[in-house]
Please model this.
Amino acid sequence: MVLLLIGIGLSLSLGSVSIPIDEVLKILLGVTIENSTWDYIIVNYRLPKTLTALLIGSGLAISGLLMQTLFRNPLAGPYVLGLSSGASLGVAILLMGAGLFSGIFGEFVFSKWSIILAASLGSVLVMLAVLATAQKVKDTMTLLIIGLMVASLTSAVVSVLAYFSNAEELQLYIFWSFGSLGNLAWGEVGLLSFCWLIGLGLALGCLKNLNALLLGENYAKSMGVKLNRNRILIILSTAIFAGSATAFAGPIAFVGLAVPHLVRQLVTSNDHKILLPNIIFGGAFLMVLCDIIAQLPGSDSTLPINAVTSIFGAPVVIWLLVRKRKLKF
Amino acid sequence: MSSKAKFTSSILTANSLSIGYKDKRETIEIASQINFEIQPGELVALIGINGSGKSTLLKTLSGIIPALTGDILIDNASISSLQNKDLASKQSLVLTNEIVSKQLSVFELVALGRHPYTNWLGHLSQKDLNHVDEAIKQVGLLQNQHKTCDALSDGQFQKVLIARALAQNTPLILMDEPTTHLDMYHKAYVLQLLKSIVKRSQKSILYASHEINLALQLCDKIILIDQGKVTYGRPSDLIQKGTFNSLFPKDLIVFDEISQSFRMKISTD
Model:
């Protein structure tokens, strides 16, 4: 918790314009300071970015936990159902297929909102497909495989699109796929928080049943869990978390898969009542930390967030696993 | 109660039940004309050779797959009319082939048995805690209750699963091969434990098993599935009727009526 607060402070303070931490606090507390540029930067740029990092980090981490428990598989993450591939496809069609639409839509194609719209549309479509399958297929493992198939199908289509598109369009798409936390204005942060709250509500609703699922589906059923309804709630929650994260910040890898493992190593309990709050803090903290690193303190340039999460996160997870010698799952 | 369904004291009743698998194209019937009544406080073994349909019957009784025809009554209520949640307060399961997370402590896993009774967050009330405590005591794992399950032996873990079912506090417990992977001593120990549970608490336990010899010595009743036919009765009655003589091909294993157990035929040539 304290670490998280320090992280938030640092991420607000550092950047291409370095602002002293005490000034940051003053601005947050509503005290007017002399340097109004700083005030502007904090309120309109840094604060939304840090909030985005918190929401997306914790959201992806929660959905990673949900998927790992639902599928009883340590390799599952928020994207196993193909949601981010759906979003990628949406954006790819928008950016690289733009030649086809640009006559009609003109400048709109390349605006920020159209990308968010395309990404949401893509992940919503995939989510609906997965939900429809979940109704039909009774076996959860089959659902996992189908999710992976959808993911590879959509990325294949993206490859085809990429092959036929020109360098400029390709670059636009690649930049989107790097992920970015910093492009959101207050309105979008509000929308993201709204999605986050709905996702959290759904996750809380199946918290108790998640514990029952630790014993396998047959046990869960024998203890009165409505398997199908529960599965759909979990998928919906994940889709909302992961879908909104991808729509607003691009496909951010790693956090969703790794944070649940990190937290399990540290809290040594598999009780979701204990795991969930820890994972929210863990995910938020890791994301803010990555955001700080991505700012490359003291320099003008920013690293792509997607690369940072993996470059600095993966060694941490490997180190923890090697040190503890055993995957707690 | 309607006039047709007779009200009995039995906890689990099968009425001309037929079990098997059904899909759009075909129906595979595994056994039919199954009739039995299990009374409170009885330990019943479900016996049959591999592939005879023990698991199918157990799955049907626990509501995991539907019956083809016939009725299953639990506590005088038809199983098909019960919601998952109501069923959970009447029967609990001990399964062997489930992938259970062993990262839970003994206490946490047993406490999951209280799932049907707790609030939406799964908060354990004092009553729940008492049930959990009692269940852990009954299987003799009190000293180990804060250990993680992956630190336990197979035999101990089996006891944890049994304790979880006890904590669910149901009049009926169904078990799928509770003694597999255990050595002879622990097999006997677990079955003795089951016997003491039914005696003390008036719960009924139906368990599927390959341990025919132990079952014959210990159980109140036996359900035998053999080539699609189901026989039900006291071990001594079934032995008298010669039911066991034809269970296995005679070249290797024969039933010895004097010792009331199956014996291996030692070839003397």
In short: Residues 91-169 of chain B form one domain. The mean pLDDT of chain B is 89.
